[in-house]
Fold these 2 entries.
Entry 1:
Amino acid sequence: MAPFRRPRRSAPGSPDVPPRPTASAEIPCAASGAGSASGTRTRARLLDAAERLFAEQNYEATSLRQVTRAADANLAAVSYHFGSKEGLFRAVFARRIGPINRERIERLQALERESEVVPLEAILRALMEPALRLASEPAGRWFTRLVGRAFSEPGEHWIEADREFDGTRAAFLRAFAHALPHLAPAELGWRLYFAIGAQCVLLSGGDQARRLMSGMVSASDPRAALDQLVAFTAAGLRAPAVGGRG
Amino acid sequence: MAPFRRPRRSAPGSPDVPPRPTASAEIPCAASGAGSASGTRTRARLLDAAERLFAEQNYEATSLRQVTRAADANLAAVSYHFGSKEGLFRAVFARRIGPINRERIERLQALERESEVVPLEAILRALMEPALRLASEPAGRWFTRLVGRAFSEPGEHWIEADREFDGTRAAFLRAFAHALPHLAPAELGWRLYFAIGAQCVLLSGGDQARRLMSGMVSASDPRAALDQLVAFTAAGLRAPAVGGRG
DNA sequence: GTTCGAATCAAACGATCGTTTGATCCGCCC
DNA sequence: GGGCGGATCAAACGATCGTTTGATTCGAAC
């Protein structure tokens, strides 16, 4: 009877103020080992299921009932742990993108520490290998599909999602500018645009993409894929400047 | 009272059997000129509105009520003219993809007619310029965003959508193989994969992509974009074979 | 002037969506 | 052993979705 002054709003995920967008990117519970009961494992199972479904389908095409059914959890668990559907998406993204970008920057710094001018191929590998390696692991295969699409898909979710890439972008942009002095800034921008695009379609590993090149690419070998991607993008970046037409 | 034996099912779009997937790709009424009344212009207005909304948002995120409101048409007009939401999507895609692929093949055939071995850059321009040029026209700007995403997005709609590209793919694959004899078929497959990927992110012109390279690329000049794309992909395709590692 | 069919319309259909509610379970600490 | 709070639960909320219905409009054919 008595209205009971809004008892909720104390979930770990977020109350009325949504969780910080600059997420901490820590894996709460890696869904490994056999915890005694269900513990807080529900949160991890929700992330796993949502990761797969968001990648297999779309953000909009994936219903929370699908997610909770796949995660063997209650529908309200999403609201409880993540506040909303978009909170779930942000958590899926933040869980893995942090470590990837951290490894990228650490590898780049190590390269810059050991030599004055870093070879172009080394920069490219530092940028692309962490994500590509994740694509070859069962746990990260779905996530890389999401990352690959973040570059070209519309929607508010994505804008916030790859804002986490900003720091990484700045660091690598300087490195590329040093390694490619023959390119004007505008030209360097175009070429990096294309290079990242090539990486993204490889990460997204789209159903269409695989169909399109069916029989020609052996998508099973991630090592060969990385070698080919580095060779292709390095040559493209090193191409002579086209400057003002012609 | 009397059940009135299902009077509908005679729309031009499709009855119970959906319209032929291998669409004729003819523009029914180019939404230009001032027809007397509303005529069948509604169909074209629906296509225009859906094209923009599907590109700005997503297939799933776009409701038919949004489309019909933007097109100043009745909600039931979609069912009447296209049979269903997916029929509308197919019609949007079929309206423009036919002419693009036709121009691609005609340009390639013209090149092969006038010289024994076609230069790589010429093949690339024949493949990429028709779509890039459409991106610079007001009428086609939204559509190119769709085309760029067809390569990496999941969903049934897309699978059918770029099946229309099959013929074009085969023709250009032969041309590339002739122009790049130093590449094994598997390597050629990878590189074409990346080249098309670079083109797709340029076509999709994603919100994120533009943000990511903000200030570096002047996206306003489509001619410069094409020059840069051709230079980048040509160099990437011509890169030495990496073969078996290293 | 009547008939016919393509085209448009308002209104509703059942289904499913994201979110919220209040109760219930259960391990833990004092 | 009694209370506390995190976690889970069934059930419902209002909104919106794609689709369908049956009536209405309107120009052309006869």
Entry 2:
Amino acid sequence: MKDKINMLDIANELGISKVSVSKALSDKEGVSEELRVKVKEVAHKLGYRINNSARSLKTDRQFNIGILISEKFIMDKEAYYFYVSGEIIRKLDDYSISGIMEIITETSELNASSPRCYNEKKVDGLIVLGQLQCDYLQMIESLQVPSVFFDFYVKNAKIDSITADNFFSGYSLTNLLVSKGHKKIAYVGSIMATSSIQDRYLGYYKSLIENEISLRKEYVIEDRDDHGRLITLQLPEDLPTAFVCNCDQVAYSLVQELKKAGKKVPDDCSVVGFDNSLYSTLVDPQITTVDHNIDKMVSTAVKVITKKIANPQRTYDRILVPGTIIERFSVKDLRLDQVS
Amino acid sequence: MKDKINMLDIANELGISKVSVSKALSDKEGVSEELRVKVKEVAHKLGYRINNSARSLKTDRQFNIGILISEKFIMDKEAYYFYVSGEIIRKLDDYSISGIMEIITETSELNASSPRCYNEKKVDGLIVLGQLQCDYLQMIESLQVPSVFFDFYVKNAKIDSITADNFFSGYSLTNLLVSKGHKKIAYVGSIMATSSIQDRYLGYYKSLIENEISLRKEYVIEDRDDHGRLITLQLPEDLPTAFVCNCDQVAYSLVQELKKAGKKVPDDCSVVGFDNSLYSTLVDPQITTVDHNIDKMVSTAVKVITKKIANPQRTYDRILVPGTIIERFSVKDLRLDQVS
DNA sequence: CTGAAAGCGCTTACAG
DNA sequence: CTGAAAGCGCTTACAG
């Protein structure tokens, strides 16, 4: 078998032109169904593989999407965005598109230098996982390929975003606590750190307003420093009966802190989180949390980016994907207390 | 600014030929250092991006590596191979190579169908993460690109592999238990399931032999079924004083089982694992385990694949990367017992 | 040190 | 339905 088979080899084998071979293999019109079948047979027999580079050079389409992740989101071996990338790649495959993952180092993020996969024209579009430095995102906006923000959005950005409906989930989760008789409810999360933390907080606040519970300043607890690194949690003097934590990992830490302080979950304090991650199930008690429906978010993101590649003018703005509350064992029903 | 800048545009701007531009930008000899600098300046000014497809078409090099992961290894959101992929991609960047991740579905694995990134000539080489079906691996061997197996090896395979030194780590870990006075030591893991499980077992066995402890059949405990799915662990009647678990996840399950059976870790039973994963730190007590030095494994894998691309004849065979024991709180020193 | 020419393997617009 | 011709943007071997 010849080492490198190209369309001309197939054409010669059948005594036709390579134009017909091209049309047959790419399912374009202009060849009889009979010939198409024959061409495909011969292609298979000869072990033909299409040369994506040659195709790209003519069509100006790479059939690759860049998936960008900031280094800071993958400090953990179990980082959530790794999983998301995997799901994106799986989904892209439905469109015969490959995913090129690229990790944005701290330096590139600070310098707002454009990703290599873009610099080398390897990709038709970009999916950005998780919020980055403002300047970096502006650079992304200026690039000549369609992009989508995943899991965050930015004011004024002309780039479409797909996010979990954090606001509504925060609202629902807090409502759940209120419905179980809680009134002293704290929020754990640094609300300037990311749009997710902030929106979950605002949902929490909306629930307080609607339920005529006043917001207490000391009940909004910082969980990370200016660089986004997690810090030790400070419990308020007057202990709340419930904590809405901006993510499961922080909920996990909080449970440890409470235990240290001699408090029991959920008997003394209820704790809820977000993300439905490993952290929510590997604690005792397992934590009530919000599942963000990542599958839906991923398939939406992939659909949007492919459509934007086909039609770069089209915009989708902010797409919100609703989450689902997963009730577990970290919330006490205070109304039952009063009965007994 | 013109939309699509190519080498000819740069050449015209400077009144030189595109050949000189090409040589200047790719740091090839044949241009004066003075001109090289000028060319790079103009390229930057015009926002030039090299066209990887055109380059590939001429050079037959794609500057992409395929990273293959079987679906079955990423059932977990926190799957270890996601992290490994990330590290590989980070490392590839040092060589200006991009990583194209591809998830092998159960069907493709069973049918041994070649990966799309290969079928479309998008990659110069392949890194296979984790053991796949025999037929699938034979298919990989037959492909016309260099490949490397990561984290497993196969008898008779002509493909080079990079693995943790599972045998030696199993041996060392068991030695540690023996040195702390343990004699009744069980191994938890289905030894036919993967080469890692088997080699860790053989290391365990070597330690037993050397320490003149006889191997007890009932002390080798199955942890997964024929499809590799984890099953409920059966504790032996005569309880061992220590368990060597083939991975942290199983160690984690074992601790739960032991607790259910009313046994305390490490007071009644010591437990050790492998992998240094989240499972080993999210249990109480935190588990003594083996860190596999993934960084080293990854950088070795990347080095090997790039060298093989440059020189496809060259072979490296089986490369073993030593691990490190991380001592935590799940092992009791029985010798102290006797004293007190 | 510099450049004209050929060609990598496709696809597309056009002609028959 | 079929095919000859042109061209995408590079790199390489060769000539000056």
